[in-house]
Design goal:
This protein has 460 residues and is of the alpha+beta class. The chain folds into 2 domains: 303 residues, Bira Bifunctional Protein, Domain 2 (BirA Bifunctional Protein, domain 2); 92 residues, Anticodon-binding domain (Rossmann fold, 3-Layer(aba) Sandwich). The chain has 19 helices and 16 strands. An 8-stranded mixed β-sheet has the order 1-5-6-11-10-9-7-8. Strands 13-12-14-15-16 form a 5-stranded mixed β-sheet. The protein has a 3-stranded antiparallel β-sheet with strand order 2-4-3. Strand 9 and strand 10 form a beta hairpin. The model has no long low-confidence stretch (mean pLDDT 92).
Length: 460
């Protein structure tokens, strides 16, 4: 019998018990925080139909998909003409399944398939492996775990502010304090594309500048020129991207540069609103850095985009995400907007190992839903959510200003035992109205008494 040296495919890894204890520490920290913010668990298959995967990640992303050959004689329907026409013509004849590239597209497919059973807005978290046929290197693997949190069915920018709060809370709990949460908006990139005279090349622009940190300005310039950008437009692009200062200074400068662009102006306005919400929701400093050069190469993003980098670590981003306004439409469910973020647990692990942040090692539902009475009470509601979470409660906020009946129905469907109602009278009297969803009984009192009531009721 011929023996062979045992090995695993390049870009994959085994995890022994000692490593798994540390990985589980990360996963449990992330999972617990996702649950505290009201996200529900979900899993989708490792395999997806090729038709689900292709066309959502851009041409470069499509080339990184792991395709699975059809069973049996997969070449039976192939002739020389198919081969001569290239892989795009050949692929459908030899493969109809692939390993999932990320968790967002399968999530959109799930939402479309289960639209009649889902209670919108729908918040889900998902922690599973994904696969990419990438060139393995430090911090980049062919099989790795993603930890996603998404809310779909709401256009409210409160959802973006919640993601900022979520990211900060998780990283602080893991001991990662020296990080930057970069944020931009696809509409701002569209405005920049207009400003440099290439309004029809937004997608190409995003793919190219997404590589800035990896390959540098010179190579990005050559790629843009090859895609039809003029030297003047490229020069103008980097003049805009190099605008510096505080967040507000950069926003102010871009407001002048993009004042003739409708999408650019709308994107800047959205960023300002997200900042305002985050200032009232995040516990501590939210560490957001507005970066007009942030692009995120995936083609399905349409709004705010996020990326987290740990300072002084040569490992790239440890997470990213953004808003996608119409991803479910490819599955027959148009007009459903979503926004989410994903941690790459493998990169988080590498950072924590380098910084020696691991401690020595030898099913939750929300307790309360905070409602929004109207547009004038939003900021106060966000502040109450922040204070309740500081007290250790698992809290979520209904992100849209809809009728109170709908918000109460949302809490009922999710079996959330308590609802806090904040109207102008409550705010004026510094009181909270607490509704017990099981009994229907309502009481009004200050925040500390409200926390004690919730804790004492649930401990019985």
């Amino acid at each position: 019998m011929v023996t062979q040296k045992p090995a695993i495919p390049k870009g994959t890894r085994d995890f022994g018990p000692a490593i798994m204890v540390r990985r589980n520490y990360i996963l449990e920290t992330i999972k617990k925080t996702y649950q505290q913010f009201g996200y529900l668990p979900l899993e989708t298959p490792a395999l997806e139909n090729i038709s689900v995967l292709t066309g959502n990640y851009g041409d470069e992303g499509d080339q990184l998909l792991f395709k699975i050959l059809n069973s049996g004689d997969f070449l039976s329907k192939v002739d020389k003409a198919d081969i001569d026409q290239g892989y795009k013509k050949l692929l459908p004849k030899i493969s109809n399944k692939g390993l999932k590239y990320d968790l967002t597209v399968p999530f959109a497919r799930f939402v479309a398939m289960n639209r009649h059973e889902i209670n919108f807005p729908f918040k889900r978290y998902q922690i599973q492996p994904v696969w990419r046929a990438d060139n393995p290197q430090m911090g980049r693997y062919r099989e790795f775990y993603q930890c996603d949190a998404d809310v779909i069915g709401s256009e409210s920018l409160i959802c973006e502010a919640e993601i900022i709060s979520l990211i900060n809370q998780i990283l602080n709990q893991l001991g990662i304090h020296d990080f930057i949460l970069k944020m931009n908006h696809r509409s701002i990139l569209a405005g920049i594309s207009e400003e440099i005279g290439a309004p029809d090349k937004v997608a190409v622009l995003c793919v190219a500048i997404d590589k800035l940190e990896k390959i540098g300005q010179e190579k990005v310039s050559r790629e843009l020129e090859a895609k039809g950008f003029t030297p003047n437009s490229i020069t103008r692009l980097f003049e805009i991207l190099e605008v510096s200062g505080t967040n507000q200074e950069i926003l102010s400068k871009l407001s002048q540069l993009l004042k003739k662009s409708t999408p650019g102006t709308e994107g800047l306005k959205a960023i300002q609103q997200i900042f305002a919400y985050a200032d009232n929701l995040v516990i501590g400093d939210h560490r957001v850095q507005f970066d007009p050069s942030l692009a995120r190469g995936l083609s399905y993003y349409t709004g705010a985009i996020f990326e987290v980098q740990v300072n002084n670590q040569e490992i790239g981003s440890i997470g990213g995400g953004g808003r996608y306004d119409d991803l479910t439409s490819i599955f027959g469910l148009p007009g459903v907007s979503g926004v989410g973020f994903s941690f790459g647990v493998d990169r988080v692990y590498d950072v924590m190992e380098k910084l020696q942040l691991f401690p020595e090692f030898q099913n939750t539902q929300s307790q309360v839903l905070v409602t929004i009475f109207d547009d004038t009470t939003v900021i106060h509601a966000l502040q109450i959510v922040r204070e309740l979470r500081k007290q250790g409660l698992t809290v979520e906020i209904f992100p849209d200003t809809v009728k109170l009946k709908k918000q109460l129905n949302h809490a009922h469907k999710k079996s959330i035992p308590f609802v806090i109602i904040l109207g102008p009278d409550e705010i004026a009297n510094n009181q909270l109205t607490l509704k017990n969803m099981a009994t229907g009984h309502q009481t009004s009192q200050d925040l500390n008494t409200t926390v004690n009531l919730i804790n004492s009721t649930q401990s019985k």
